[in-house]
Amino acid sequence: MDKLFAGLLILLFAGLIACDNAPQSTEETEDETAEEMDASSAQFGGLALYTLRDTLGKDPKAVLREVAEVGYKYIEAAGYSDGKFYGMAPAEFKSFLDEIGITPLSSHHGDVTLDNADAMIAAVKEAGFKYFVIPVPPMGHFKFDPETRSLSMSEDLEEVMGIINTIAEKCTAAGLECLYHNHNFEFEENAKGIVPIDYFIENSDPEHLNFQMDLYWVTKAGADPIAYFNKAPGRFKSWHVKDMDAEGRFAPVGTGSIDFGKILAQKDKAGMEYYFVEQDMTFNETPMEAIEISHEALKEIGFK
């Protein structure tokens, strides 16, 4: 009896193992694969957090969770102060982004100087970013007229370039990539007959400095992004993607006049590795609504 019972147990156990190891039906496997693909494709693209600067100043963690829920995969910071990103120490900021499934890729530092660059670069590195971005001419060379709301820069391009190149070399030494971000004035001829962006391209080393092209501001200046991709191939490593409405104002991607599809077709020539949706101001929707509209439009245009 004992031998019979033991034999039955062995057969039963073998049957259970066979059931556990039985292959899933093709239909079940396809369903699971489709779900995995949907989950991975739902989150894509980058967001420049400057767009949400007002609400980020109040409750950064809640806002960043919303950004993840909208579907953005990586971010560009514009909220570094006193050694912290949005009130969080670099390691804490990185840990929180890991927790919500967002990658820190790029960080803007408009107040960088030759004196504070080392500390800023160290913080950017610790937080896990890839790019250190200089968003305006540094150290007093950027000008903003509050009455006309116009932007400009000093004409001492040699001094500006010297500062930027020095900071860029520091970034390289730290294992970061340095980019310069444009507005409209870099693409417009100054009083000396020089187009600043041309000077920057010609007087910088791509081993240390490359560029973040803001497609709105290039268009605002009346310049052609693709012409610059051809002029300096491979040097426009990231883009700011925002549209222009009929009045020339900022608009959500896909609602304005910029032909992003045509520009995107030249991304390899540009050297574009990442892009970030940005909208400096909103007019017909909240900033959060604007980034949702833009994220949906990215898919239709072909951004991934």
From TrEMBL:
Domain Xylose isomerase-like TIM barrel: 64-277
Pfam families noted in UniProt: AP_endonuc_2
GO molecular function terms attached to this record: isomerase activity
Leader sequence residues: 1-18
Record keywords, A-Z: Isomerase, Signal
Keyword Isomerase found: yes
PANTHER family from the UniProt entry: HYDROXYPYRUVATE ISOMERASE (PTHR12110), INOSOSE DEHYDRATASE (PTHR12110:SF41)
Identification of the protein by name: Sugar phosphate isomerase
